[in-house]
Amino acid sequence: MAKIAQEFEANSEVKQLRPSKLLQAGYVEVVYDRSIYAGGSTACVAVARDDGVMDVANLGDSGFVHLRLNAVQHHSEPQTHAFNTPYQLSLVPPRQLAQSRAFGGMPLQDLPKDASVTSHKTRNGDVLVFASDGVWDNLSSQDLLRLVSRHMTAADAWTPGEAGITVGKRLGELTEGIDERESDAAGPRNLQSTLASAIAGEAKHASVNAKLDGPFAKEMQRLYPEDNYRGGKADDICVVVAIVVEA
């Protein structure tokens, strides 16, 4: 998908890049790649337009939150066939397909067209967090809001005042990358990477905390109280953060 997105501007026949089309193109590339025998993945793909509108195609239990000045503007809902059974783009080996048919069943195989597609108007200072289920199983949208707000206000990217919280004057500067030739320090290079690292770290910590019940644990307790499930849920953790800066 990254390759297709990079080549988009060179293709004059395509008027606008859409996340659903990008998801479909990436899926087709994988299906016809003979080096890939089997696999499955959820997906959350976003494309921002020049007018500030962001289109998102989300399939499965990866997802995103749209934060604005210490408030949750929007959060995606997971797509599942049943509890802990998310929609997935799947590549199933022919032998396994044949075995499933022989027993009267079929493995779950979702398609890009099954993704939930939404549009969101963004503005200066908004924070967009895209993450895999290892984050959402352990942190709620409000957990992320508290974490992001703490970092944004500490950096003066969001500034509390008598009129409420406003966008800080240094936002553009804070989101610019640091030239690696001018700094030997390891770690995040800008505000968005700082936020992504902080969220990933908090999710990892929560996932191995046996005493703190996250969203997954609470849902388990609601659906299967007899299991007495407690604590976090170890799972894959991937975080991408974008901060909207007015040009």
Beta strand count: 13
User: From the helix content, strand content and strand pairing, which structural class follows?
Assistant: alpha+beta
What helical percentage do the residues reach? Answer: 25-40%
Strand content: 15-25%
Mean pLDDT: 90
Kindly, what is the distance between the CA atoms of the first and last residues, rounded to a whole number of angstroms? 26 Å
Order of helices and strands: HHEEEEEEEEHEEHHEEHHHE
Number of helices: 8
Uncertain spans:
none
From the alpha carbons, calculate the radius of gyration and give it in angstroms.
20 Å
Strand order of the main beta sheet, please? Answer: 5-4-10-13
Taken from the alpha-carbon principal axes, the silhouette is globular
Largest sheet: 4 strands, antiparallel
